[in-house]
Amino acid sequence: MANEQYQTVKDVAGRLKVAEATVRHWIKQGELRAIDIGKGWRIAEADLDRFLQRHETAPRAPGGAVRGAAGQEEVT
Questions:
Q1: Which residues 6+ apart lie within 8 Å of 33 measured at CB?
Q2: Which CATH number covers residue 50?
Q3: For the whole model, what pTM was predicted?
Q4: CA 11 to CA 23: how far, in whole Å?
Q5: Does residue 66 lie within any of the structural domains?
Q6: DSSP for 7-64, written as a single string
Q7: Range of the domain at 45
Q8: What whole-number distance in Å separates Cα of residue 12 and Cα of residue 58?
Q9: Is residue 32 situated within a structural domain?
Q10: Residue 65 lies in a domain
Q11: Per residue in 19-72, pLDDT tens?
Q12: Helix, strand, or coil here: 3?
């Protein structure tokens, strides 16, 4: 964990194209794990990855296709 890269709330918000307030809300609700260091929250890459996996709508099928609502593969 000591060698892990951490991102600020601003960094995560920029990557996900959401407001910083949204990222802080996820942290306060316990949806996104973060560490309070100094002047603000820091999010580990592994924690962001877990958050994103929990919020996937459907897992990717082999070969990069995503299953649609009708169970048909849609190429992404």
A1: 27, 43, 44, 47, 50, 51
A2: 1.10.1660
A3: 0.71
A4: 10
A5: no
A6: EEHHHHHHHHT--HHHHHHHHHTTSS--EEETTEEEEEHHHHHHHHHHT-SSPBPTTS
A7: 1-55
A8: 22
A9: yes
A10: no
A11: 999 999 999 999 999 999 888 999 999 999 999 999 988 767 777 665 555 555
A12: coil
